[in-house]
């Protein structure tokens, strides 16, 4: 009976003095027009195999997760981040206060442009379309002008660039 009491007492003191850490950070928003939307609608989700925590960013887009045991954590957002659903992996050590700055876009950063001008150089003479999916075309002879395009890949999403500037190597 005494051994059970001592075991319980040791377990109580061990858990009382175990160190926890915190993950704090700031959301970095590339489009200032989205800041109000992010403040109203965004949830920051922190999870690992043992727990899931969710918070909203404050007025300055800062956030803090406290009393976290050490381990590997994943941070994601709801709604998802554009152009891809970005997830950040962080490792927290016992007693550590980890600071992270996370890029987040609640709206698609690729705007439809009527004039197809590159946002970097402002010109359209080196701008070519981006083609997605499997592109199969006819072989051209040397006399025929070759169609130019930039291969966008096989995965098609609701947020992707339509144009590529060869001069600046910029998708838009």
TrEMBL record:
Entry keyword set: Signal
Gene3D superfamilies tied to this protein: Carboxypeptidase-like, regulatory domain
Signal sequence residues: 1-18
InterPro entries cross-referenced by the UniProt entry: Carb-bd-like_fold (IPR013784)
Any GO molecular function: carbohydrate binding
Domain of life: Bacteria
UniProt-recorded name of the protein: CarboxypepD_reg domain containing protein
Natural source organism: Flavobacterium beibuense
Keyword Signal listed: yes
